[in-house]
Each structure stands twice: as structure tokens, then as C-alpha cells.
Amino acid sequence: MIQKRLVLITTVCAAIGLLTALLAAACKNSSDSGKTAVAGVRLDRDTLSLSIGGTETLTATVQPEKAADVTVLWSSNPPGIVTVIRGKVTAIAAGTATVTVTTADGGFTAKCTVTVTAAGNPVDPNNPKPPLYWHPDLLWQDEFDGDTLDLAKWNIDWGHGDQYGVGGWGNGEFQFYHPDNVSVKNGKLILEARKEARCPCGAVHTASYMDNTVHKTYGAYTSGKITTAGVRNLGGVTPPAEPQKFAVPPGFRVEASIKVPRGRAFWPAFWMLGENVSEWSSAIRPWVEWPRCGEIDIMETNALNHHKYGVCLHGGKAYGTNDPNDPTYPNGGYWLRGGDYEHEASLADDFYVYGVKWDSEELTFYLQDADQEVQYFSWTLNFAAQEETEFNNMGVYSAYTDAFSQGRFSIILNLAISGAYVAGEYNPYTDELVDDWTYPTTWAVPPKDSAFGDTPELYRDRTLQVDWVRVHRWVKETN
């Protein structure tokens, strides 16, 4: 009898315990309404009509209203007709495309059909003066017509790169990027290199390389960098993180009219980085590390040798090796393709147009005069055939080219000071140019102090100047 009572009591207690747990869970769910699973998603419209170059923003509403995870991903198909970034749809070619929004929780979708028609020259009836530059295939542009940078198109990056986990920007560079070094004057973007009494970074970074080597040995330097990618907050007095402003898909040509600086240790660059690189655009998914995201270097120069500029692609599954004999190559390896072009005249004496055009099959770099009437140089790489027209000494082409054939790229302009690219091309003690990367034994090569004088000539020589940046749909020539 006692044993039966114990069994009965135990059973009743267990039942009470289970009931209590169920009631607690129910109370928790009812009080914590933010944990509701996603049940669907809808768009504020099913159809949309745009002219080439036009934009509209779609609004996605995740259901129910208090769902726990309201993250959504945007896509468009077929590619090349519209782009969509956080719901903002931009028409880039005539045709019909489907924009799809997908919930991260549950994979629910909603779709909008977008019809794009050709457009005439856009003229505001209240302001009949046409834009400074217009073309029917123009997707995006900045003519720098004003006295401030257009922050609807660009973000200004800060710092030594520590917020991205790449102190010295991954190349042993000296500069602290700062907004004061970015200006728009007389229709030109100006990125200026400066030597400072002290670094404005304060205590917002911990890079021992900067603290112990650059600042103590060479001094403090600032410069300018702008990007259409999202940027991260550096900390301290810097502004909050900013989202991506623009990215270019395959099927376009990206060009800028640029006058480069001249002088030791200045490293100007016009380049693009895959929008889904984790360090730069944390809001873009799926994340991938460099170099899998892809990097397109449209122009970079060692400003001491201002007759020459380089182009390059960086790719591969992971950073490691470009040695074909390494067992991790190519599937686990890193590859680069590119080289240098040496121009007869100085590239620092005038504006030149540096460009790249690419689609899912091939990519071409080129250099033109400011009026785009003369082409001095071009280099083409065919993704499918793994062929190129020049530069057969820069590593073996490998797999993982999907970043270039399928991905989208953010545009970047910056003026670096010292670092890997410029330090290896001359003896820092004599300024003698060398080709074998024998000198120096360190990347730390400072500019001459005389470069930071007050004359107009010295100011010109320590600035990267940009007349315009334009993105056109690439209409390939057919035989």
C-alpha cells in the first residue's frame, strides 16, 4: 500500500511539474511577443514601371508584425535590367525583371514585376538646363559639381583600418583617413595627403605597428578615402556606421577622369571590392572573406614613377598562395592577374580616363585621354577560356571567378601613404627606381617632408584629383 501511494504521489507530482512547465512556457510566449516566428512577407506593390536611370523603393513587410527576425534579402532576375539594394530599385536597361524579397527566417518570398523602358534626356521642366553629362546607357555618375561631397552617393572612410581588422589597411600604410582630407573644389574631388603634428586617431585604435613604428619613427600622416561601400564606425568621435550606397553588377563599364599625384610614398588608387566582403559591408549576405569577394584594381600608381600605373584582379577561394606547386592551389589558393603600363608622358601632368568593363565572360582594363578620343592601353582576360592578352608573369589563373562573373562591386577612391605597393619599387635612401623588389627591407618608407610645403605646385603633387566618375551599361561590339 505504501509503495502504491508512493507511485501515485510520484505520478501526480510529475504531472503537476509538466503542467507547470507548460504553463510557464505559455506565459513566457505570451509575455515575450518578440519571439514569434515569421509567417510570410508582402511588398507594397506587385508591379513597377521605370525608365532607364529611374529609381523607386519597394517596402517589404514581414508578417506577423512582431516577428522575431525581420531580416530580408533582395534579388532581381534576369540580371542586367535592374539592381536592387535594400529595396531601392534602379533601372539600368530596357526589359522586364522580377524583384524578389526573401525572409531570412523561413524563406518566405514576395515578388514585384518591374518593366523598364528607354528614356529620353531627363529635363526638369522647372530647371530646363540638362545635366553636365548625360548618356542613354548611363547608370550612375558623380561630376563633383558643387562644393561638398554628395553623401547620398559616397561614404567617407576613417582611420587606420582597425575597425575592419586590417591595421595599416593590410599593407603597412601610414595614413589615418579623415574627412578633413576630402573636399570638392572647382568641379573636382580632392583627396589630400598631409603630415600632422600628431595623429587625430587618439585612443580609437590599438595597432602596435602604428603606435610603435610609424608614429614614433616617421610621424603622423592623414589622407582621404571615399567609397560607395558600407563603412564601419571607428569609435570615439567618428560618426556611426553607414550603409552601402551603390554597387556595380557585371555588364557595365566603370570610368573615372583622374590626375595622379607625384612624389615618394604616395599611392593613389581607383578600385572596386566585392560588396559581400565581410570586413567592408557587413550588411550584405552571404559574407565571404577577401579575396573570394573579388577585387578589381582599375588604377594604382607609385607616384614617384608617375609615368606608370598598374591594373590587377585579386581572386581565389582563400588567401594563401599563388604557387601552382602548393597543395592548396588553386582551390584553396589565392591568385592575381595584372601588370603595369608605362606611358610616354607623365600621368601627373593631366587628367586621364582609367576604366574597366566586364560581364560574365570577360573583363578589360583600359586607359584613355581626357576626351576619350585616344586609347593608349587595354588588357583583357577571358574568364571561360582563362586567356589574357598580356602579363603572363603574374601568377596562374585559377578557379573561383564567380565574384567577377556574378557579383557586384563597390567603388573606392583613396590616396594611401607608403605601404607594400610603393615601397618595393625604389631605394628609399636614393629614390632610385628598382624593378626587383630588393629595396627596401621594410614597407615603412615615408614621404619627403618637403612634399608638404605651402606652394600650389606642392599641393597639386600631394593630391589625388578626380574630375568625374561614371558607370555605363556596356554595349559590346559584335562582329
Features:
single chain, 479 residues, mainly beta, Immunoglobulin-like, Jelly Rolls, 2 domains, 7-stranded antiparallel beta sheet, 5 helices, 12% helix, 35% strand, disordered N terminus
Mean pLDDT equals 77
Q: Could you give the count of β-strands?
A: 30
Count of discrete domains: 2
Strand content: 25-35%
- Note the overall shape: globular
Task: Label the CATH architecture of the largest domain.
Answer: Sandwich
Helix-strand category: mainly beta
Instruction: Give the helix tally.
Output: 5
Rg calculated over all Cα atoms = 27 Å
CATH fold annotation of the largest domain: Jelly Rolls
| Main sheet summary | 9 strands, antiparallel
Report the oligomer: single chain
CATH class category name of the largest domain: Mainly Beta
The percentage helix is 10-25%
For the termini, the CA-CA separation is: 100 Å
Spans where pLDDT lies below 50 across 5 or more residues: 1-33, 120-125, 389-398, 437-441
